[in-house]
Amino acid sequence: MNSFEDLHCESERQNKRIYEMCQIAEAELADISVDDFRKLIKINLDAMKQTIKNGLARCELTFSGMCGADCSKLQARFAVRGALFGRLYEKITAYALAAGEENVRMGKIVACPTAGSCGIVPSVLAAVSEELQINEDEQINALITAGEIGRIISNKVALAGAVGGCQTECGAASAMSAGALVQLLGGNSQQILNAAALAMKNLLGLTCDPVCGLVEVPCVKRNPFLAIHAVSAAELALSGIVSQIPPDEVIDALKQTANLMSPMLKESAQAGLAKTKTAIMLERKIRQYQ
Amino acid sequence: MVRQSSVMDIISPIMVGPSSSHTAGAVRLGILAKNIYNKKPQKVIFRLYNSYSLTGKGHGTDKGLLAGVLGFGVDDARIRNIFDMDVGIEYDFEFTEDFNRHPNAVDIIFEGDLNMKIEGDSVGAGRVVIRKINEFSVKFTGQYNTLLLVCKDVPGMISRITGLIQNVNITSLHCDRQVRGEEASMSICLDGDLDEKAIKIFERLENLYLVRYVEKLGS
User: DSSP states of B125-162 as a string?
Assistant: First the structure.
């Protein structure tokens, strides 16, 4: 099963959920049992939760001084005056920022699909599961669903900013996260794939223009933004809204956009935010310090 | 239908941040170099090129390379403060540019009883390739168990060597030489394992100058 269309048809034909078909195929590929495959996924799920926990408790700045203290600010505000959208919103944004900051201060993270986008899937998964008291088995099902969406996207376009810009890193993470959330909330396979397509469609063209060439600005703060973006896509899909462009064709568009995007906007720090007046100043400061 | 990829490639690795190519990739290049050198060096010099040179410090590339050479995994929490540790070998970093090289290229130069220079690239998403050992071109990714050989460039070497690999499937074979009749190199990737006994046989073969069996990288 290497396309969303395959996945949907097989899901209907076999009357199985996406994660069920995925775990059987993965176990076969690795020559292990389905239980053992799920244990491997659980190790990664636990590591993601640990990253969030570590990140929430820290506020050290990175080597460049650009990132590291924002999650504590967000938590401080929420502690005094709750978020407009309530507790779940607070948790998702704080968790995504916590993981993103933990990554740039060289903490332990799970690349999902990349290190720079490591806060998006875990934050939505952990926050929603805590608030709705969803058990671990269901969380593993959702994480497998996220992985399967990422895998199918990666069959067409490599998930790396240098290849396709941020649309193929944080964009893919948001699509994975949207599908995972629909799984977590009990949606069917069509809704899962539509959630991924809706999230992805809305992020086509997102460039990778990191200031000083570091995975810090705008990467870290993009994590909470695109985690919330995934929730919107999931809500739309669960209501029955479908992407007028089928999921596979959205990925075709992603690939074409990646190919057409200037190399100057693909992780090379030659344009966009990376070449603003302030970015150039920051770059000089960091170089001096080196 | 054949499954083209695995979800384990998407939700992984568990690693120390911030960058799969600049941090995890650096650790992996260090691990592969250490396993090829296979001795305790007196000194290691890391020469970083291009993007590795320009953004390496901010991404912990220098720390990752050293950690790999010491045998730490990509998820080892000690990487962050590795420069504060007593690591038992001398080390130095050089930062340079050469646009004939890959954006994320490094030379790892070992000094000691044996001197060896290993060149590698971090090619994205944590995947790495060792391109050269001393002056010999190799192609070594750490995705498979690999037998690396330097031998005399004489007829019949490939068949003699592959003839000794009877029960293990060879996935790829890469050969190179500098001058006819001098030294040649071979990198042989394998699906299965070679046991110590088999490796000992290679070490005793005539006209073989260097034999290294390097196991594939963990996730």
Answer: TTEEEEEEETTEEEEE-SSSEEEEEEEE--TTHHHHHH
The predicted model gives B154-183 an average pLDDT of 88
Are A106 and B13 an interchain contact pair (Cβ–Cβ within 8 Å)? no
Q: Catalogue all structural domains in chain B, each as residue range(s) with its CATH number.
A: 1-134 (3.30.1330.90), 144-219 (3.30.70.260)
Q: Give the pair of three-digit tokens for residue A279.
A: 């970015």
**CA closest to B125 among chain A residues:** A160
pLDDT at A290: 57
Would you call B64 an interface residue with chain A, using a CB distance cutoff of 8 Å? no
* A74 HSE (CA, 13 A, CB side): 25
Q: How far is A253 from chain B (nearest CA, A)?
A: 20
- Is pLDDT larger for residue B130 or for residue A290? B130
Q: Quick: pLDDT tens for B111-162.
A: 999 999 999 999 877 889 999 999 888 888 998 999 999 899 999 999 999 9
- Report CA A150 to chain centroid distance, whole Å: 9
User: What's the gap in Å between the CA of B114 and the closest CA on chain A?
Assistant: 32
Other Cβ atoms within 10 Å of B156 Cβ, number = 9
> What pLDDT, on the 0 to 100 scale, is given for residue B181?
82
Give the model's pLDDT for residue A289. Answer: 64
Query: Quick check: A148 and B9 in contact, CB under 8 A?
Result: no
The alpha-carbon gap from B183 to the nearest alpha carbon of chain A, in Å, equals 38
Contact of B5 with chain A, judged by CB distance below 8 Å, is answered with yes
The b-or-e profile of A243-263 (16+ CB within 10 A means b, else e) is beebbbebbeebbebbeebee
Element at B122 (helix H, strand E): strand B116-124
Q: From the candidates A215, A223, A280, A287, which should be mutated to test the interface with B, based on the most B CB atoms within 10 A?
A: A215
Cα A58–A97–A187 angle (5° rounding)? 135
Question: How high is the ipTM of this complex?
Answer: 0.94
DSSP-derived 3-state class of residue B185: strand
Given a contact cutoff of 8 angstroms between Cβ atoms, the answer to whether B138 and B174 are in contact is: yes
- Under the banding of pLDDT at 50, 70 and 90, the label for residue B219 is low
Among A106, A115, A163, the residue with its CB nearest the CB of B79 is: A106
